[in-house]
Amino acid sequence: MRLLLFAIALLPFYVRAESFWLVTDFHMDSHYTGYVDSSQPKNCWAQKGSAPPQTFGRYGCDPNMELVNLFTGSMKTIDPKPSFILLNGDFCGHDISSGEKFDTVRTVYQSYAQSFPNVPLLPSLGNDDALDNYQLACGPNNDYYNKLSEVFNATGMTFQTSDDMATFQRGGYYSYSPLPNLRIIVLNTVLYSPSNRNFDTSRDSDPCGQFAWLQTTMAKAQQKGESVVVMAHIPPTDNGYDSQFLWRDAYADRWFSLLSANRQIPLSIFGHLHHDGWVLLRPSDVHALAVRVGRIPANAPAPNRADDVPFHAHLYAPSVTPSQGNNPGIRRFTLAQDGASKWLVGDYNQYFLDIERAYFMNKTALTLGYSISDHLRPTEVKIGLGPVAFTTLAMQMASNARIYAEWSMRHEVYSSLKQHQYLCAMMHSSREQYNQCVATYGGAAMM
Q1: Which residues pair with 90 in a beta bridge?
Q2: Which segment of the chain is annotated as a signal peptide (predicted)?
Q3: Strands (E), 299-439
């Protein structure tokens, strides 16, 4: 019903509306029992407890398939015929062994394949999906990627071209066109993490050739008139809770430069952080990082204030796992196509499961936490989600404590951040601009 109302609200601007789901950070752990052992309160694998097991998850623990299946069932009830589903990595629990990981990925992916048999399921890889956390490398005949492609193919996924299969088997990245004139680019950003010991920016300027492929794929999409949505697991941002930057600087600089040269791509979608939010990218972020890595001299003119307008939004989403004390959450997006066949991400609904209500009151239905369009003006809804919409939201929250409080209360998944740290992390992609922001309002600078 909401999709229909959204489409009607946009007429006569748009001629077609579709939907897709985003699910990220499952961290499925088949060892989770749900028991609370009073002698070991943080033991998620306890074999007995003083109370009945918390079947659908417990704060601080990764879930088993009971919670994953609850979400797939609820998604099917809410929207049984999405155009596609994005499964944004970290299928595997934090503490499971390397020998369990392929089976875990297969089990989670198969749950979605069985619930949505004719819907394209597009997976990305997270750091916990690596056999050794974060340690993903390159092909061309990489046993890990070959095995994963077999797992996905056996449970229903089909790469659209042999080139897509080849890039996945080389480095875990590919593209997919689920609708006419729409291209989903799925990146493997675990390659760029400082925690990945396989790469060093001094010798590996382009791990697995992904940046060169990305530049070519973006150019082809533009030539074909395709709209592009980028999905990857680890975002190129401050992580927002212990002030650590999540990509190596040289790789973030290259990503920022690509986006700066392709400003027709307003939005990219990430996971990994387990909570709700976004990070804006503006010319001053690109400049600051370029200076830091030595791509331009320190005395190069910085963008003036009038031109320092955000041109891209990194959007990240809550997790299925409640391991960080959060309620599990997922998102359902709407896509709108205008008369020129351009696709825009127009809205999203965020749903969550209240873990305590599920346990104490047996309330297992997902709750609609909020719709992002409720926070936007009609003119911003018209142009779709991107830097304009999220800049407006961030500015409203920065200037009005009531709006920030209302927004944070409606986002019942999780946010333990102080207001100024949260807002600075949303407004700036480079650590220099972030540090300047938090220094202005107080708080610890990013390392």
Answers
A1: none
A2: 1-17
A3: 312-316, 329-338, 343-352, 367-371
**74 contacts 366 by C-beta, under 8 angstroms:** yes
Enter the CATH code of domain 2-234+271-276+317-385: 3.60.21
Do residues 182 and 335 lie in contact, with contact meaning Cβ atoms separated by under 8 Å? yes
To 5 degrees, how large is the angle CA 176–CA 178–CA 183? 50
The full length of the chain comes to 447
Q: Does residue 192 contact residue 207 with C-beta atoms inside 8 Å? A: yes
DSSP state of 81: -
Residues 6+ apart with CB under 8 A from 83: 18, 19, 20, 119, 120, 178, 179, 335
Distance CA 95, CA 295 (A): 40
Closest by CA to 431, choosing from 287, 315, 298, 323, is 287
Label residue 5 exposed, middle or buried (CB < 10 Å: 0-12, 13-18, 19+): exposed
Place of tokens 């999540």: 246
Amino acid at 244: Q
**Euclidean distance between CA atoms 381 and 383, whole angstroms:** 6
CB 330 within 8 A of CB 21: yes
> Could you report the per-residue pLDDT of 41-78, keeping only the tens digit for each?
568 898 887 778 899 999 889 999 999 999 999 999 99
> How far is C-alpha 63 from the chain's CA centre?
19
Tell me the residue type at 317. Answer: A
Strand partners, 338: 14
**In contact, 280 and 424? CB cutoff 8 Å:** no
What CA–CA distances, in Å, run from 355 to 125, 159, 328, 369, 412?
26, 36, 8, 14, 11
